[in-house]
Amino acid sequence: SSPTDLWCVAQAFFYLLLCVPWGSSCPPSCQCTERAGAKAVLCSSRHLEEIPKDIPKDAVFLKLDANSITRIPSNAFRHLSHLEELDLSRNAIEKIDRAAFKGVAAGLRTLDLSSNRIRSIPKEALLALNAKLRLANNPWHCECALQEVLWEARLDPDSVQDITCHTAPREEYVGKPLLQVLDAGVNFCSVRQRTTDVAMFITMFGWFAMVIVYVICYVRHNQEDTCKHVDYLKSLPSTQGHAETTSTAL
Fold first, then answer.
1. Are 76 and 56 in contact (CB under 8 A)?
2. Which residue among 1, 46, 204, 250 is least packed, with the fewest CB closer than 10 Å?
């Protein structure tokens, strides 16, 4: 082949390299497809124990359901700025870090965390989320933190009745939908506030008692010193008696 032919082949190969979407490679355990012009990354039922690191940056739909993921670490999806739907249902998630959804909060529309092992979730993890949340079928511990999440989050109305109390401060709430408990007038945050107030009262009482004991000890100590000083003065020869003795002698 002539040098001209080789140059043409090299040039074609170079242009081919420019067209390859380097940032859009698909994780080996997932399947990447186009859905209405948007990239969908499907990683369902792949026996994953953690979130893949090499998810394409242009992913719009990400399905990680039916795996064995136990934790959502900080910045797990930070590079996925186009992400709109995230499905993490039917895993074994127990821990969600405070910055778990940092970087995707603004554009995320749907977040499915149902059917996991989540007992509590930090409010900070959901602060900037506008996504519709599915939190059903988790072993929730009904307390003030979960109540605050429900107050501030956008919950999926179709699944909100399935957010039930697996454990709670009082046995009568166990097994009941959290929304039903709150609608009955229960306020877990006021219980925590009362507990805090009692703890503060006990602490203040302890400090006050220490001050009183210190004052009593101080007064008693000064009284003892005063008594000793008086006894010492009484033991000294009287000045008046000494003066009479002197005048008699004269």
1. no
2. 250
C-alpha distances out from residue 21 to 26, 58, 137, Å:
11, 10, 39
Angle at 42 between CA 41 and CA 48, to 5 degrees: 110
> For residue 35, what are the contacts with CB-CB under 8 A and spacing of at least 6?
60, 61
Residues 45 and 47: their CA atoms lie apart, in Å, by 6
Please report the domains of the chain, with CATH numbers, ordered by start residue.
Answer: 20-186 (3.80.10.10)
- Write out pLDDT tens, residues 17-66: 333 443 468 999 999 999 888 999 999 999 999 999 899 999 999 999 99
The 10s digit of each residue's pLDDT in 72-99 is: 999 999 999 999 999 999 999 999 999 9
Q: Of 103, 64, 97, 99, whose CA–CA distance to 83 is shortest?
A: 103
Buried b or exposed e, range 214-245, using 16+ CB within 10 angstroms: eeeeeeeeeeeeeeeeeeeeeeeeeeeeeeee
CA distance 39 to 36: 8
Beta-bridge mates of residue 32: 41
Judge whether 121 and 143 are in contact, CB under 8 Å. no
